[in-house]
Design goal:
Length: 170
């Protein structure tokens, strides 16, 4: 009985080649880590561990300033080397919750977007995520299946040719 092999599409081969090249690359990368605000506690510890490990390996991390995943990234990297962290806010620092501001005061590379203060937060967050992705080599995203803004950001990153690792909490 003969069988034919279905060859993978060319875009999938390109993605695979890109991922393999990234794995072999021993140089430092700029890694964006984004995720949900509402995260189980065990998952928060995992995000902190991943962030610390990446910073210890010499990578630079880029995230936003909200609670949940992004706050865990900030804690993880600040404990290793604050110079390896860049935080982009979707709006001005004054628009951030008070519990976030205390942590953000410790961030050396903080970028505010006061010009987005009048935008609804989901729109400002989407624009912020696009800029974070644009500043990075790859994206690691922790989300739920209904996290529309994050899933849209992952699609944007893929369209930009970034390697995307999407992990779901549910």
């Amino acid at each position: 009985m003969t069988r034919s092999l279905d060859l993978p599409s060319l875009d999938r081969i390109d993605t695979l080649a890109q991922e393999l090249a990234l794995l072999q690359d021993t140089g430092n990368r700029r890694i964006a880590i984004l995720g949900s605000r509402h995260v189980p506690m065990v998952s928060i510890h995992l995000v902190e561990l991943v962030s610390r490990s990446l910073a210890q390996e010499g990578h630079n991390l880029v995230t936003s300033g909200s609670q949940g995943v992004n706050a865990a990234v900030i804690r993880g990297v600040l404990g290793i080397d604050p110079a390896r962290l860049t935080v982009l806010l979707p709006q001005s620092l004054e628009r951030q919750p008070s519990e976030s501001r205390e942590q953000l005061d410790k961030v050396l590379h903080l970028v505010e977007k006061p010009e987005h203060d009048e935008l609804p937060l989901p729109m400002a967050s989407s624009l912020c995520n696009q800029e974070i992705i644009g500043r990075s080599d790859q994206l690691i995203c922790f989300a739920f299946h209904d996290s529309e803004t994050l899933l849209s950001s992952c699609r944007t990153a893929e369209d930009m040719g970034k390697v995307v690792s999407l992990l779901f909490f549910d």
